[in-house]
TrEMBL record:
Residues 65-103 form the Glycine zipper 2TM domain. It is found in: Membrane. The keyword Membrane applies. Residues 1-22 form the signal peptide. This is Glycine zipper 2TM domain-containing protein. Keywords: Membrane, Signal. It comes from Massilia solisilvae. The lineage of its organism: Bacteria, Pseudomonadati, Pseudomonadota, Betaproteobacteria, Burkholderiales.
Amino acid sequence: MKLQAKLLISALFVAALPLAHAGDFDDFGRVVRVQPRTEQVRVPRQECRTEYVQAQAQPQRGSGGQIVGGIAGALLGSQVGGGNGKVAAAAAGAIAGAMVGDHVENDGRNYGPGVQEQAVRQCRTIEVVETRNAGYEVTYEYRGHQYTEIMSRDPGDRVHLRVSVVADRY
């Protein structure tokens, strides 16, 4: 090999020497203490209940019996009497027939105002305070020094470390 090639290779080797000593490597530290960290969080939640209240009821009445009864009463009334009396008898028959028809259709029930119980659902939003895990405060020892870090999980009895070695520059 020529002298120039040997000098060039030697120069590259000398330039790369600090890079071989500096760098990163993996190691483990001994865990001394793990303290869970918690936080209080407000969470909205809906709370519902059903109450029963008294309400006025107006049931539907049938009117078909009144119509049929009125027509039947008017026909029967028109058969009684003569002249102006026929008209009066037809009118009286219509009124009586309507009343009888209504009574028959509605079974004689009284449909005045009544009271009925109704279910009413009432809901409200409340805030509940929950305690959640916010990580772990881990204290570990490495080469005679203690360090504390916040970690997302409990590492156990030893912690994996990525160590960087960098020379001080004065």
